[in-house]
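Quick check before the chapter quiz. The format below is the same one you will see on the exam, so make sure you can read both the input and the output lines.
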Amino acid sequence: MDQSRAPLLEALQQYHRVDRYGFSPPGHRQGRGADQRVRDVLGDDPFRADVLASGGLDDRKSSNGYLSNAEQLMAEAVGADQAFFSTCGSSLSVKAAMMAVAGDDPGGLLVARDSHKSIVAGLVFSGVTPRWITPRWDEEMHFSHPPSPEQVRETWEKHPDAAGALVVSPSPYGTCADIEGIAEVCHERGKPLIVDEAWGAHLPFHEDLPTWAMDAGADVCVVSVHKMGAGFEQGSVFHVQGDLVEGRYLAQCADLLMTTSPNVMLYSAMDGWRRQMVEHGHDLLGRALALAANARERIAAVDGFTVLEDRLLGDEASHDLDRLQILIDVSGLGVSGYQCTDWLREHCQVDLGMTDHRRILATLSMADDGSTIDRLVESLGAVARAAESFASPPEIHLPSPSELQLESVLSPRDAFFGNIEMVDAGRAAGRIAAEQITPYPPGIPTVVPGERLDQAVVDYLRSGVAAGMVIPDASDPSLEKFRVVVES
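Here is the expected output.
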């Protein structure tokens, strides 16, 4: 195929060239009906691009095949058998993969317990029973690592009837699992491996990045183009290879979840990003990796900061690391990551993507250059100098790894939709949670519906909220009360 083409972008360009006009949604009619105050902020171009339903650019509304051609080009570009675009983010794509692989299979699905909240939402939605794979744990750093092939094998031995396995790699911290080893373990049993690789859309395009899941033997791989690529938020692609997962059935599962009015801007941006990466991705990512190496060295020279790298890798840690993710331990300053992030936002107008009780994370991309790296390093230096004026961070009661491994009593679906009540925090320990409770970012649930709460986890979450942790999905974000199952 001609990788210099971008079918969706070209079709949109042609739409405007011939001055087409649609008497069909969207009702703003290329911005003619939009409030001028909205157009003053957003500009006219987003409305001019929002022509999918009326422009014949959606394969469900015409036989032009623009979308399917763009998807075929994407699959060829990265070496997958098939690729499908989603405009509802990888949150939708991973749910579709779970449904396609496990469906109503009574054996359930092997799921890494360090999965994103969207996967837990998929368990609630689909009713699939999770067979949890316990992540590895650095107790001193209070940091989890993706599961090893050996842990996946042990979980298969406990649950041999499971329909497949799902792991997350890279993690939101940039740490990566041994996907090749895990795929081999799954394929020994003739079972598929799904990889939630939302943070890895860029991986196929440079050899100095961690191995892409499809190259490592995964059967389904879900990527978010907006995270480490150059697409809009909500742009996602799920890739399929081999014969363990039927591509068309996977697409049908996605169609059950997806909007029937997708936005052409998201599709077109993914189409254009694929072309850009085929033509220039290696050079762009090579430059970004060189900038990241320079940034890491400069940040590590700031007193009180530790740039984490070697500590994250090893036989009992992660298999690989995306070095565009710069994870910084700030505990040497005597402050919390929450305090640093808040100060940077207020005083430097710099936003970071992830923070926790002792770390902050700066995510670099191919869009960064020397000026943005200078701004990052200077801002981090400023927060390090200001840290001595910070109040002592509130104490967070960190549970041990064993205390974090809550007992699964009910399926997430049964607990979430069951008979529930709200109880005071002092009476929550020992009760079965009926909600996700997720420190965000990075969005990994501490509590999954159906798990029995223990006092250590309750204390951790409540003390975390008092220290600046954000928990957006709890019924009561203050955690004065917990949503639990009514037990007879």
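If your answer matched, good. The two ends are 62 Å apart (CA to CA).
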